[in-house]
Design goal:
The structure holds two protein chains of two kinds.
Chain A (H helix, E strand, L loop, with lengths): L2 H9 L1 H20 L2 E2 L5 E2 L3 H12 L13 H30 L1 H17 L5 E5 L3 H13 L2 E6 L2 H10 L7 E3 L5 H6 L7 E6 L4 H14 L4 E5 L3 H9 L4 E3 L1 H14 L1 H10 L21 E5 L3 H13 L2 E6 L9 E4 L5 H6 L7 E4 L4 H14 L4 E5 L6 H7 L3 E3 L1 H14 L3 H9 L3 H15 L5 E6 L6 H9 L6 H4 L12 E8 L2 E4 L12 E6 L1 H12 L1 H9 L7 H11 L1
Parallel strand pairs in A: 3-4, 3-6, 4-5, 6-7, 7-8, 9-10, 9-12, 10-11, 12-13, 13-14
Antiparallel strand pairs in A: 1-2, 15-18, 16-17, 16-18
Helix pairs in contact in A: 1-5, 2-3, 2-4, 6-17, 11-12, 11-13, 11-17, 12-19, 17-18, 20-23, 22-23
Chain B lengths: L2 H21 L11 H18 L5 H26 L10 H31 L3
Helix pairs in contact in B: 1-2, 1-4, 2-3, 3-4
The chains are: A alpha/beta, B mainly alpha.
């Protein structure tokens, strides 16, 4: 029996017994009290007739005095019955209302509803713990990619927000502590449909606990965990966590890339952009090249990463910090970035850019406005902490807005979308501007302004049966160039680019058209969605593959193929 | 001593005794089977069933099942009383009474089962 039903029955025991007693007393009384029939002879109700009368009177239906009109004694007792039964029903109703308003009961109801919808989840889904800004952004992106998910958060308001968000699918969420393995199991961790776990809570302890539970209960499952401190990151890595994300480091890396290699940064932000986004050659804006002078406002955990990024980019900088923290190699000024004196002191009139990176959104906006007043063409990088202040940040028109939660979400999505994409992004991170520029131009000319789709392909016996079938009959091996031909017209090329190939553990980035495919190769492609469809047809359908590879229509049946072969000889 | 246990045992045993009181006597003799005893047995069995609802344990499930059997038998017996073979005196005919008494004898068996389960459960308790 479900716990909801159990609680209901237990709480309603007393009123139910009272009602039974009232019914019994009333029925017995009516049977005993003498009446007269139509002819005036003495008459007794049978027990069944009495029970019938009590039933329709107690439920206020009131069919009247049947089978014969009552005597006054009977009417007196009927009055007692009416009052008694009203008390009984009122008690039952009050108990019910009390129960419905009970916090524990409501929790039992929502929890059982959650369990039911998780149990009914028949397609692949992800388990997301922690619905902060980045957690919500991940959910939105998962929804747009067409994945299902279940969500856990300690905060009731976050779970309520799930319903407000308007996801295209049912979004089951539960208010619970993700540290308990039972909660994770209730959210579907043990189900084979669960494809991955994302733990994005803002305390490391919970994230580590989730990673531990997941690695014990489902070894080999992809776990993405957020780790704010280095020690947590080390523990997570030793658990075999698929990807460990440190928001501060991620932010610093991003900024560092933007300062060091603007084109690589642009390519990165294209590759990690959410599906349905648009690519602009001018976005994100290029940071002015080194050398130059920057002003960094705020020196906390983010600030440290920002300084590292500035140093990497080969810039000089002055730090403005309310605590006046000492930064090695840079001048530090005590003060808020919002006062003109501190900014002027830091050289705002000659600086090439300012980074408003405090953890207070209002302060960041004020810093940007003040700096613009001192030098209208100063390059402004602004950190946005809260999604709710979106409107202000859009209006202020900073040259670059960095939202840490969004960066984390994009990294998560990139790691989940396609198996090889995360590895490819790691490759891109270390590339120079020229390489990145040529690739992004190639992508843009092929795919257009809409963000590309990514897919990966394994040349395996199960996945590529059609292609391998054709390969057996061909004289020369199949190359990537052949594999990007259209199955509809031999001379047409599919609108896609091979980004990476993996063969026996070694990765080949941007393989050439002449790259010959072998059994067991894994390939990562980027391109239009119709190219993805065409390639999946090429993989599975032998006659389509034969046409695309050889440029001629091949017979479907073995007999005709044999005849053709004899004729060709 | 736990008041809840006292009430529970009281109701379960009372249901069995009332049932026995009704069944006891010559099977077709209306004088031996008063309607009131059947009525009381049914009401007390109903209360026993409600008391047994919502118990998670295995014993609780058995208890509830035996109570449901009792109710089924007794309600059918009452229906037979009112709708099959009533004579001019308002009492059931001999043949109808045989059915009624045998039905409630079945209920008695279920009631006794219920008492036995309760006894086993009590002896298994170490507190």
């Amino acid at each position: 029996m479900s716990s909801v039903l159990l609680i209901t029955i237990r709480r309603l025991r007393a009123p139910l017994i009272l009602i039974i007693l009232i019914f019994a007393l009333s029925t017995a009384g009516l049977t005993l009290i003498p009446g007269v029939d139509d002819a005036g002879r003495p008459w007794h109700m049978t027990t069944f007739q009495a029970f019938y009368f009590v039933t329709y009177t107690a439920t206020t239906i009131g069919f009247g005095e049947i089978p014969h009109a009552f005597t006054d004694e009977q009417r007196l007792f009927a009055t007692v019955i009416i009052y008694l039964s009203v008390i009984g029903w009122a008690y039952l109703l009050a108990a019910l209302l009390n129960l419905v308003q009970d916090k524990g009961f409501q929790q039992a109801v929502t929890s059982s509803r959650f369990r039911r919808s998780v149990a009914g989840m028949g397609e692949p889904f992800y388990l997301v713990c922690g619905l902060g800004d980045s957690g919500m952004a991940v959910l939105r992106a998962l929804d747009r990619l067409g994945y299902r998910f279940t969500a856990l958060d300690k905060d009731e308001r976050k779970i309520q927000e799930l319903e407000i968000q308007g996801f295209s699918n049912d979004a089951p969420g539960l208010v619970a502590d993700a540290r308990s393995p039972e909660t994770l199991a209730a959210a579907g961790l043990l189900k084979s449909e669960c494809k991955g776990v994302l733990s994005l809570c803002d305390d490391d302890e919970t994230n580590l606990a989730v990673a531990i539970s997941a690695s014990i209960l489902r070894p080999g499952l992809s776990v993405i965990g957020r780790a704010d401190t280095a020690t947590t990151a080390v523990s997570m890595n030793s658990l075999g966590t698929y990807r460990v994300i440190n928001p501060f480091r991620e932010f610093g890396d991003y900024l560092g890339l933007a300062m060091r290699a603007p084109d690589t940064f642009r390519l990165m932000s294209w590759l990690t952009s959410v599906p349905g986004a648009y690519l602009f050659p001018s976005s994100p804006t290029r940071i002015p090249a080194a050398p130059g002078h920057w002003i960094v406002c705020g020196y906390g955990r983010f600030g440290k990463e920002v300084i590292a990024a500035v140093r990497q980019g080969g810039f000089t900088a002055d730090v403005i910090d309310p605590a006046g923290a000492r930064v090695e190699g840079f001048r530090s000024i005590r003060g808020l970035g919002t006062d003109i004196d501190a900014l002027r002191n830091a050289g705002a009139e000659t600086a090439c850019g300012i980074i408003a990176g405090t953890d207070d959104d209002t302060a960041n906006l004020a810093i940007a406005l003040t700096a613009r007043r001192l030098k209208p063409d100063i390059f402004v990088i602004i950190r946005q902490n809260q999604q709710t202040s979106n409107l202000l940040f859009n209006r202020i028109g900073a040259n670059m807005t960095m939202v840490p939660s969004e960066i984390v979400a994009n990294q998560c999505i990139a790691a989940l979308r396609t198996p090889l994409l995360a590895e490819f992004l790691d490759v891109v991170r270390n590339k120079d501007d020229l390489w990145a520029y040529s690739l992004s131009e190639r992508l843009r000319s092929l795919v257009g302004v809409e963000a590309p789709r990514f897919w990966s392909i394994t040349i395996g016996r199960a996945d590529a049966s059609g292609l391998l079938d054709v390969a057996k009959r061909l004289s020369q091996p199949i190359s990537i160039g052949d594999f990007t031909r259209s199955p509809d017209r031999h001379d047409d090329r599919l609108l896609c680019v091979a980004l990476m190939a993996v063969r026996e553990g070694t990765t080949i980035e941007l393989p050439h058209d002449e790259f010959e495919l072998a059994l067991g190769d894994q390939l990562l492609f980027a391109g239009r969605s119709d190219a993805e469809r065409s390639q999946s047809i090429l993989l599975s359908d032998a006659s389509m593959a034969a046409y695309a590879l050889e440029g001629r229509q091949e017979a479907d049946s073995w007999v005709w193929r044999t005849i053709e072969r004899v004729l060709n000889r | 001593m736990n008041l809840e246990k006292v009430v529970f045992a009281f109701v379960v045993i009372l249901a069995a005794t009332l049932n026995l009181g009704f069944v006891y006597g010559g099977i077709s003799d209306p004088g031996h089977h008063p309607l009131w005893q059947l009525f009381a047995a049914t009401v007390v069995s109903l209360i026993a069933a409600v008391l047994k609802l919502g118990d998670r344990s295995h014993m609780g499930a058995l208890q509830l099942a035996s109570s449901l059997v009792v109710l089924l038998q007794l309600i059918v017996a009452s229906l037979v009383w009112f709708f099959a073979g009533q004579t001019a005196t308002g009492l059931p005919s001999a043949s109808a009474l045989v059915t009624i008494v045998s039905l409630s004898a079945g209920a008695l068996f279920a009631n006794v089962t219920s008492v036995i389960i309760m006894l086993i459960d009590t002896t298994a308790q170490r507190r």
